[in-house]
Design goal:
This protein is an all-alpha fold. It has 24 helices and 3 strands. Strands 1-3-2 form a 3-stranded antiparallel sheet. Strand 2 and strand 3 form a beta hairpin. Helix 8 packs antiparallel against helix 9 and helix 11 packs antiparallel against helix 12. The N terminus and C terminus are likely disordered.
Length: 489
């Protein structure tokens, strides 16, 4: 038997041994996170608690019932009220999972008092596990208990964990269809966060309230809340992206398409690469807003990696609007009606019908110097009781709005298009350059605002005497230069 065969036999593990090894490793990482939270609580360093939350997200896929139960035993101890409450949400462990070495898992609560940061973290860990297991009813109960516990606490070191608990609290109720029940609680929590100057909590809760209102199409209430809520510099890029997305949706419904386009494009640009679903939603709304503005999105937007399949209905819709074919637009609308309904964009697509007609009419006015209103109705494919009268009113409105440069001969029943002039003799190129320059300047200003500089701790503060001496030297220098100028004259 070779040495290699011996080594291979030694390294072979049974599935049960592999599971126990993985469980022990995950529990060990959680204990390190608990030590980090304990240190952050003692030194009152928020960054340590924030780092603990980030490390937990990395372990999310490895959480099992046995790992969570063992960690609760380690962090809270068997006799505490929090341990009894949280253990009731965790299912019993399997037989082989119970082989985790508990001898080295001496309870942290037995040696000293458990900090509230660690207790709140345990709520967060259990809630994370329940949501990943799709046990949303248990998650509702756990999140409600965590919110009740948070109301009695006022420490800045728990703000990071509290913001995550707020998010999963809302998510658990949304997944069970009871989102309207917690609106009053979220408003009260936002009020408390404002009084306590918890800016991260304010950001998170404002976004959750906006999502709550928009879920039930309460756009007016959402705008009133958004306009009256205090604004400050964003602390979380994710929360700022969500805020921009909700703001873009509100602006779109309120027909403020220019502001909506800016907010949606900014949200899609700032969103993390991993947040594919969020970026897809931003792009869907941004495409519709650009179409409503009369713009045609670039083909590259629909070909982005991982988005081509999700954006396919909107690509065909854009093609129908670009051509100005009303019949093709109706077919796309019927073909993807279910998708548009799920995306909650059906009402916006209904608005696009007018843009399709206007685009088709613009193409007709460019192609024909004179055309009868009957032919206009046929080319636009107007299916109405009196298509010629509808075509006449549509052409008249387009001329009034400046969409086409033409006149109508009502007696003979035809449209006469004026000769197209040189576009460079108009203000359109200047407006296009102006919008691009404004976009670049805004991006530069945002980049400058996002810069972070380390505190100037390496320089000693100047004393009062030193400042007085420097001021005196500057005055003498200025006097000397003034005397030299007099001598020159």
């Amino acid at each position: 038997m070779t040495t290699q065969d011996v080594e291979m036999k030694e390294n072979n593990q049974t599935p049960a041994q592999s599971i126990v090894s993985s469980t022990t490793s995950t529990l060990h990482h959680l204990k390190e996170i608990a030590a980090l939270i304990d240190t952050g609580s003692y030194t009152k360093e928020v960054r340590r608690v924030a780092r603990a939350v980030r490390l937990t997200v990395g372990l999310r896929q490895k959480l099992t019932a046995s790992v969570v139960s063992s960690f609760l035993d380690f962090a809270l101890g068997h006799g505490s009220e929090a341990h009894a409450r949280l253990s009731s949400f965790v299912p019993k462990s399997d037989e082989h999972d119970m082989e985790v070495d508990t001898a080295s898992s001496a309870s942290l609560a037995a040696s000293k008092h458990v900090p509230v940061e660690l207790e709140i973290y345990c709520y967060f860990l259990v809630l994370l596990f329940l949501i990943d297991q799709k046990k949303y009813n248990e998650a509702k109960a756990c999140s409600s208990a965590s919110i009740a516990r948070l109301k009695s606490l006022n420490k800045r070191t728990i703000d990071v964990i509290a913001s995550r608990l707020y998010f999963y609290y809302s998510l658990s109720y949304e997944m069970t269809g009871d989102l309207a029940e917690i609106r009053g609680t979220l408003l009260a929590l936002h009020h408390s966060a404002t009084l306590r100057h918890d800016e991260l909590g304010q950001e998170t809760l404002l976004n959750l309230l906006l999502r709550n209102y928009l879920h039930y199409n309460l756009y007016d209430q959402a705008e009133k809340l958004r306009s009256k809520a205090p604004r400050f510099e964003a602390h979380s890029n994710q929360q700022f992206c969500r805020y921009l997305f909700y703001l873009g949706k509100i602006r779109t419904i309120q027909l403020e398409y220019t502001d909506a386009k800016e907010s949606l494009l900014q949200a899609a640009r700032k969103a993390p690469v991993a947040a594919l679903g969020f970026r897809v939603q931003c792009n869907k709304w941004a495409i519709l807003v650009r179409l409503l503005l009369g713009e045609i999105p670039e083909r590259s937007i629909f070909m982005q990696k991982g988005m081509d399949k999700a954006l396919r209905p909107y690509f065909e819709l854009t093609n129908a609007v670009r051509i100005g074919d009303l019949e093709l637009f109706r077919n796309v609308q019927e073909k993807f009606a279910k998708t548009f309904s799920e995306d909650r964009t059906h009402n916006l697509i209904v608005r696009l019908r007018h843009n399709v007609i206007r685009t088709g009419l613009r193409n007709i006015s460019i192609s024909y110097s004179r055309i009868s209103l009957t032919d206009v109705a046929q080319k636009l494919r107007l299916n109405s009781a009196n298509p010629v009268a509808d075509a006449e009113s549509i052409v008249a409105k387009a001329i009034r709005d400046g969409a086409i440069d033409a006149t109508i001969d009502h007696n003979k029943g035809y449209m006469v298009s004026k000769e197209t002039g040189d576009i460079y003799s108009t203000n359109e190129p200047q407006n296009a350059f102006n919008s691009r320059i404004a976009f670049c300047l805004n991006m530069h200003n945002e980049a400058v605002r996002a810069l972070r500089f380390p505190p100037n701790t390496h320089r000693e503060k100047e004393s009062e005497e030193k400042r007085r001496e420097m001021k005196q030297q500057e005055e003498e220098l200025a006097k000397y230069m003034a005397e030299e100028d007099d001598d020159d004259f």
